[in-house]
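Notebook entry, structure prediction.
Reason for the run: the old model in the group folder had no record of what sequence produced it. Starting over properly, with the input documented here first.
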Amino acid sequence: MSENKDMYTQAKSQMRLSERIVAALPGFKGYHEKELRRESDKLVRNHLILKLSHAKNDVRSIFQKITDRRYLDVLSDMDRLTAKIDRVTEKINHASYGYSGFFDIVKVKEDNLDRMITFDNQLVDYVNALTTAIDTFKTQLIEGDYSELKNKIQTVTDKLEAFEDIFDKRKEVIMGVTQ
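New structure, fully documented this time:
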């Protein structure tokens, strides 16, 4: 499925003895478990941000190659693609960690946090599909294939929009509305 499979279990197994003792204290265990889940989620999202940042650099490289060859009819499409990658990256960077306030009506429970971690792990697969499409596009340009630029740009844009649509369902997963 993804290279970040079950980050929560991995984080839990790497706790030091002192952390395990404190985690066993009544009242603290649940709090600590939630924090581990949130930190695991943050690690997965940081991985997504890193992959998208590399993808953005590749898109800029593609943009430069297209500009150098003076294919002016697709520059606005490339500009929109670059802006969209920036926007999606920032959306992930500022996404909720699954916290709910003390007086919030809807409380975020552990099982919802577990669904959020599973959901974020699945997002890695979507971002991998996006980066593969960008890598293929870049390789074709390096090999001198500048045919059907609009279609190639649209393919990458479609994958990015599909990724964003899936990511936008994340809040519903956190609240337990969908799975």
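Summary: Residues 1-5, 99-107 have pLDDT under 50 and may be disordered.
The old model has been moved to the deprecated folder.
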